[in-house]
Amino acid sequence: MLYKNRKRYYFFFIIYIILLIISDQVTKYAARVNLSSGDVDIIPGLLKLQLLYNTGAAFSIMTGKTVVFYVLTPVVAAIVIYFFAKLPFERKYMKMAFCLSTLVAGAAGNYIDRIAFHQVTDFIYFSLINFPIFNVADIYVTLSVIFLLIFLIFGMSDDDLAAWVKKS
C-alpha cells in the first residue's frame, strides 16, 4: 500500500503534483492559442471559454500587484509543503495529503504563468451567474481549500488534529 512505503508515498505525490501542473498548463496554452480570436460558447447562456489575462489574485483582487505574488506564492507553498511533510504517515491522513498536494499544484500552476507571462491566463466563464473568469489551477486551489476545511471540521477528530499539530 502507498502509505506503507515513505519513498513511494512521496514519489506518488510528486508525480501527482506534476501531472496536475501539466494539465493546468496544457489547458492554459490551448486557451491562449485557440481563444485569442474570440470566445467559444460551450453551453450557450451557461458556460463559455473566454480568454482573460489576470495580473491579480482570485476575482482580480490586487490587480497589478504581481510582485506580491512572486514572494507570497512560494512562501505559502513552502508552508503547505511543510505541513504535508509533517502529516502522520497513516492512511487516515491520505485525504489531507491529496488536498495539500492539489493546493500546491494550483499555486504552482498560476505561479508559472506569473513568472513566464507576468499574468495568469484565465478562460473558464460561467455566464449564467456572471462568475469571474478562472482557470484549472484556480479550481485546484478552490476545491482543495474547501475539502481541507471539510476534513478539518468534520473528518478529523481532536486526537487526529493534535497528532498532526504535535508533529509540526
Largest sheet: 3 strands, antiparallel
Strand line-up across the major sheet: 1-2-3
Helix content: 55-70%
What is the terminal-to-terminal distance? Answer: 24 Å
* Shape call: elongated
Specify Rg, calculated over alpha carbons: 18 Å
Order of helices and strands: HEEHHEHH
Tally of separate helices? 5
Low-pLDDT stretches: none
Count every beta strand, where a strand is a DSSP E run of 2 or more residues: 3
How much strand content do the residues show? 5-15%
Mean pLDDT: 89
Alpha-beta content class: mainly alpha
Number of domains: 1
Textual characterization of the structure:
- This protein is mainly alpha-helical and about 170 residues long.
- It has one domain (about 1-165).
- About 60% of the residues lie in helices and about 10% in strands.
- It contains 5 helices and 3 strands; from the N terminus they run αββααβαα.
- The chain has helices at about 5-35, 65-85, 95-115, 135-155, 160-165, and strands spanning about 40-45, 45-55, 120-125.
- A 3-stranded antiparallel sheet has the order 1-2-3.
- It starts with 5 loop residues before the first helix and ends with a helix.
